[in-house]
Amino acid sequence: MNISDATFQRLEAEFNAPSVRSSTSPLLNRQWISDAEAQQRAGVNPFPPGVVAPRPVFDIKKMRELLDMNNFALRDSFYELFKNPVFFPRYNESLAEQRARTIQRWRLIAKTGVFHNTLQTFTAEGRQRYEATLESVGAMEHSMEIKMGVHYGLFGGTVSLMGDDEQCAKWTPKIENCQMLGCFAMTELGHGSNVKGIQTKAVYDIPSQTFIVNTPCEEAQKYWIGGAFQSARWTALFAQLYVKGVCHGVHPFLVRIRNEDGTTVPGVTIGDCGAKNGLNGVDNGRMWFSNVRVPHDHLLRRHSQVSRDGTFTSNFKSADERFGASLASLSGGRVSVSAGSLVQAKLALSIAIRYGLSRKAFGPPGQEETRLMDYPAYQARLIPPLATTFVMQLVLNHLKAKWQRGELGRELHVWSSGFKALISWHSLQTLQETREACGGQGYKSENRIGPMKTSHDVALTYEGDNHVLLQAVTKTVFSEFMKGVRSGGNFKGHFAYLKDAEGLRQADLSGMDARSAAFALTVMRRREAALFARLAADLQKRTATGVSSLQAFNDCAVLVEDAGRAHVELLMVELFHHTLGDLQRGGETEVADMLRLCGALHTARTVDEQVVFLRCGAVSVGEAQMMHANVGRFCETLRPHVLSLVESFGYPPHLLAPIAFDYVAHNSKSRL
Ligand SMILES: Cc1cc2nc3c(=O)[nH]c(=O)nc-3n(C[C@H](O)[C@H](O)[C@H](O)COP(=O)(O)OP(=O)(O)OC[C@H]3O[C@@H](n4cnc5c(N)ncnc54)[C@H](O)[C@@H]3O)c2cc1C
Asked: What is the CATH number of domain 182-321?
């Protein structure tokens, strides 16, 4: 595929930052990378000094393939590309420089042609290639991943999912090769999580056969729109559609916002969102529309159509169904955000665990000091998040496979919402813990964890605020639970386990193997069952007093979120053990055994960290104490394998940090 190099030439001139074009901004000392690579070439694993590489008890390559799923060579080819100085990290650059550098990097990545046929045909292979690319890029720098995710995933994804076949065929090739650069304009200053409430209007004008788009008030200005301030020429605009005076709800339109020379089109005003806490390589903007005329065939009409003479039709009967379908591109976005989020956790753990293995502090008088990783208190901070990261990656792989197969239904919505919330929370917590675990070194930008943390933070908010997502999960699955209740206990689907509610209550956890699926499922199901039953009772109590069901849900929102988390954590355990079963059946015993330990630690820490298990009676005090003891026990068991485990994430030295290797040599006077 020919990428539109003319587009990038123009963009590089527009994002004018001379220091970036001439690459004169200072580089960090990169000798540590050459050292690590020289060790690799000599056949020595580049571990931190004094760290004896344990003989892995599982096949690291197989583990990596299990985690990455596909496109291994492609990922490695990107890691190789990132040895080009354009991709070297630079810190303390101005906003303009960071944005310019992102464009410069995008050009080189786009030039590889990797995005060809990722939107046009939307095959499983195309989606896998797209996801693998974004994940690889995210390991280099998060802004770059998000900048591309907005253009290809959100803008391109909206056109390809919401446009009909003719519209897709016309526009997606141009989006893939960057001839049409776009952004995704859903959020407004006054409405973010509440998308239904957005106020931008698109009124169909029969005489001119155009939609007239207006921003009716300041709260309706489009806000936070990635790429809008400088690079985008087009936007996937979400607006309330009016036909013959009737509002048909939120619909997507393809709208030109800039001419190819970068000037804004008449009626569109664009402003900058300014400096952010992170992700400053992305030019987020604000937009106002004043009588902007959008051609009739730019309503993305896969699900809803307006005839030229002004008749509205839709494939969906209810406005709610229509609204749900118009947000489909967000599910794909949540898959990418979850995957990108775990990349940050994996990198941070790779860096911190290596440092914890080589760094020593305190020790018996007159003897060598003790390695940090040999302190149980230190293990308890890094090994549980490591275990959870493995569990979440394997669970996420189920979601990715579902998305790649094009299963866009209710289950994708629940999984993508729930997993995105829990994965991004987990990653942020891991980034904070790893930052602290590296002490002062964790606060140095060149050691990556700090900048990664500030950039990743917003993953908790965009593509759906995590709290709001958990509420949405409960709202979606609660009706299924209630069907079982109303049928007198004939629970089906996910809740079928409740047919034997008594057996679940009576199960003796202390007599079970804490690494088994039965153990994890018992404890997670008990919590879910208790919280959903509690929610049903509380809602009924409230609606009996005459309040609406919406108000009752809002009144119970804390419990609603607890129930959502319980549901998602149970789903995760189910999917994780499904993978373990497959591995076991496929003869991958060593990999499965290691993962089973990770799963056991993940379950133990989940219970140990959340008092809700005790509060709702899912575990007794004695069982809670057992879980707490299990955390320490499994940390100790996993301790000899932590290096092999982070090795299986597959990141080469140049994507890690100096403290992951010989930090003393790196900081020596001779390298000043
Ligand atoms: C860096 C960045 C990039 C972005 N990029 C884009 C983009 O390209 N395109 C785009 O369209 N949007 C984008 N967004 C917008 C993003 O999707 C929204 O910020 C997000 O949906 C949250 O909306 P909000 O900021 O209005 O927060 P609000 O919805 O106002 O939420 C504020 C707080 O209220 C809480 N809250 C809200 N409702 C409830 C409730 N019912 N019960 C309890 N608590 C509640 C939330 O949990 C949150 O903590 C971006 C945002 C950022 C920060």
From this structure: 2.40.110.10
